[in-house]
What we know:
CATH topology of the largest domain: Aldehyde Dehydrogenase, Chain A, domain 1
CATH architecture of the largest domain: 3-Layer(aba) Sandwich
Number of strands: 23
Bound molecules: nicotinamide-adenine-dinucleotide, manganese (II) ion
GO molecular function, one term: aldehyde dehydrogenase [NAD(P)+] activity
CATH class of the largest domain: Alpha Beta
Number of domains: 2
Number of helices: 15
Shape: globular
Domain Aldehyde dehydrogenase: 30-492
Radius of gyration: 23 Å
Keywords: Oxidoreductase
Strand content: 15-25%
Protein name: 4-guanidinobutyraldehyde dehydrogenase / NAD-dependent aldehyde dehydrogenase
Active site: 267
CATH superfamily of the largest domain: Aldehyde Dehydrogenase, Chain A, domain 1
Amino acid sequence: xxxxxxxxxxxxxxxxxxxxxxxxxxxxxxxxxxxxxxxxxxxxxxxxxxxxxxxxxxxxxxxxxxxxxxxxxxxxxxxxxxxxxxxxxxxxxxxxxxxxxxxxxxxxxxxxxxxxxxxxxxxxxxxxxxxxxxxxxxxxxxxxxxxxxxxxxxxxxxxxxxxxxxxxxxxxxxxxxxxxxxxxxxxxxxxxxxxxxxxxxxxxxxxxxxxxxxxxxxxxxxxxxxxxxxxxxxxxxxxxxxxxxxxxxxxxxxxxxxxxxxxxxxxxxxxxxxxxxxxxxxxxxxxxxxxxxxxxxxxxxxxxxxxxxxxxxxxxxxxxxxxxxxxxxxxxxxxxxxxxxxxxxxxxxxxxxxxxxxxxxxxxxxxxxxxxxxxxxxxxxxxxxxxxxxxxxxxxxxxxxxxxxxxxxxxxxxxxxxxxxxxxxxxxxxxxxxxxxxxxxxxxxxxxxxxxxxxxxxxxxxxxxxxxxxxxxxxxxxxxxxxxxxxxxxxxxxxxx
Length: 497
Ligand code: NAD
Ligand code: MN
């Protein structure tokens, strides 16, 4: 926990020196073309720096270098125990620099610094350490062959991995890829979002300090349609891992098909249902969790509980409890340690969120709280947590991912109807059910078409369980040992004895 005050954070922000260049072969470098883009803080509109805008030439260079590092064996063939030590050092360095990294992330994308420090940075460091600790505890297999055969089933690193990540949890999403990708012995090129490049750039130096060899970890800031596309179309990238929108995820599958059939693993959007039954064990806890599920991280969460399904018999009682719980989620200055809701990522996203609020009103949903931009005098982009009641699952605000603090309340009459509504979505990332009926809880968990199901809680999970989506929420899983599958090829070796 930090004891830093807002004044302390502001003082640090003023004296912060921000690295803005790309990172290739163990060095910070300008983009080949010399281009940059402005990195503006959504907190107050201030210019944080001009960041290297990488493009196709940078991708070529980084991929060639990553390939050379991979082929040299300097990391890919390093003894597991040694690779583990470097990974754990890397994770520990992230933890040691947590205050600096949290500040960078807050300035860059607007989330409350207290959350960046105690949640994002902790999770990122933990994921890198966990993956490192895991790598020398994974054994290969010997097949049950006839007596005169020896069948070895082994995992090998796949080669060059490109990781393209979003801006909502910049370092945490990066770590979910970097942990198992590096632990498996691959070379990695990380492409952060153009909306939040700063922490990815900063940790490159920490990776070198940890002893990860030059060329094994590279960072290319820039836009999706330039350097992102170049990586996705590159003939020498073996695996592309992505977290971001479903629209871009689909595009990446096309790029893979148009190029070298690189493996593509996608964590995409969500429109998760949070189902509150009349027999929930604790309606107060459910109301608080429903508020947090839409307001935390400004609602910019892939698993946001953006559809709140409420049993009709408790609707009039329960919805006001959620409205009350949302009052603790007031937007404030992200560097104030007591702030629970920060700024949206940028002005363009603000317009999009406000557009959805207008659509909700136009389609006849009942606005119960929020609905407005606030703190405009700050120069930043802030929206109040917003709740619409009386939503129908066919409305735009019930179907599309808003990725902001806008909650749609949909009533239901029995659990079968709730499950039908929950599954009536192109997405399948997560769902929650609140009930004290054990059988109902288990039957619902089986019926929900989602990668994560929570019972009597929202957003449970840690490194021990896989995370990812059904349907158009993606394929493959981050976290847990299952994540290693994405970064290795399976080989069968038959030896005649
Ligand atoms: P986005 O799809 O717009 O961008 C994601 C990344 O893809 C960025 O780095 C972007 O530069 C890059 N990109 C964009 N166009 C590209 C192209 N043509 N080729 C290659 N790369 C390209 O998503 P976003 O707005 O940054 O993030 C929000 C989305 O991320 C939401 O849909 C959210 O649900 C999703 N998300 C999913 C998870 C999950 O684990 N399932 C977690 C967090 C966020
Ligand atoms: Mn930014």
